[in-house]
Amino acid sequence: MGLISEELEASNKYKLEVDDDGLVKLTKDNVAKVEAMISTDSKYKNTIDEENSKFSAYWLRQLKTVLIDNEEKSEDGYEYEEIIEKLVNAIDAENSTHLNSDGYGRESVKEKILEIEKNDFIRYLKQPNDKYELINIIQTPSKKFKNEKHHFSFATKFCHYSCIYLFKGTKAEDNFSIYDNIVKTALPKYIKKYLKRDVKISEYENNYSSYIRYIDAIREVLKQNGESISRNGFDHLIWYFHKGN
User: Fold this and answer.
1) Has this prediction a pTM greater than 0.85?
2) In the 3-class helix/strand/coil scheme, how is the chain assigned residue by residue?
3) What is the C-alpha separation between 175 and 130, in angstroms, rounded?
4) Lowest mean pLDDT segment, chosen from 45-54, 56-65, 108-117, 131-140
5) Model pLDDT for residues 193-205, shown as the tens digit of each residue
6) Is the pLDDT of residue 135 over 80?
7) Is the separation of the CB atoms in 60 and 165 below 8 Å?
8) What phi, psi does 82 have (nearest 5°)?
9) Neighbours of 155 (CB within 10 A)
10) What is the pLDDT of residues 140-176, one digit of tens each?
11) 56 with 163: CB under 8 angstroms?
């Protein structure tokens, strides 16, 4: 066997495990593989760079100083309003959520967030209590801007990334699943496999409480079978496996 053939054969142990139905297995090992791939993929790895002001991780670091540590300015000298503006823009750009396709989405979302008292902002993120008020505030069109679109997917991503950075190392870091077209489309297959239910996308489409309940129900089945994965791990695994399909 030649070197190339040996290398290709050896690579099999790093591939995602797939079940007999052609679905990715929801395991910690598969999640770990995907996290490793994302962290070294040039398309995504820069988004976690906390030192580069192009990316959301940098602005989330600034936000933590002002929001959680209650400082007047961030460690790099930014005020709250500018941090929120830059953070909204960065998350929108990194996730291709096209806030400005209606002409003013970024400005509107920034204003909605700035209207929230800081203590309420923290509470909405840290204790969503199945109400997910911050998602509703962000995604609901403002009366100020005519014909503003709903920004549902962006709202879930904003909450998701904010929690991961603001509450790192705590249970609250995993408070929000991302609502993504790829995961949304693939989810019925996993509901059928793990929950034994035939569900149409319309049953949870643009309904965050319903969407996250299905994800958590699948995760609970996994836990009962000795395989616990986070909401973040579930998102990344399903998204990465199905994004090429």
Assistant:
1) yes
2) CCHHHHHHHHHHHHCCCECCCCCECCCHHHHHHHHHHHHHCCCCHHHHCCCCCCCHHHHHHHHHHHHCCCCCCCCCCCCHHHHHHHHHHHHHHHHCCCHHHHCCHHHHHHHHHHCCCHHHHHHHHHCCCCCCHHHHHHHCCCCCCCCCCCCHHHHHHHHHHHHHHHCCCCHHHHCCCCCCHHHHHHHHHHHHHHHCCCCCHHHCCCCHHHHHHHHHHHHHHHHHCCCCCCHHHHHHHHHHHHCCC
3) 10
4) 45-54
5) 999 999 999 999 9
6) yes
7) yes
8) -70, -35
9) 24
10) 999 888 888 999 999 999 999 999 999 999 999 999 9
11) no
Question: 234: which 2 tokens?
Answer: 């579930």
Amino acid at position 60, single letter: L
Name the residue with tokens 């840290």: 126
Name the token pair of 64.
Answer: 């933590």
Q: What's at 237, amino acid-wise?
A: L
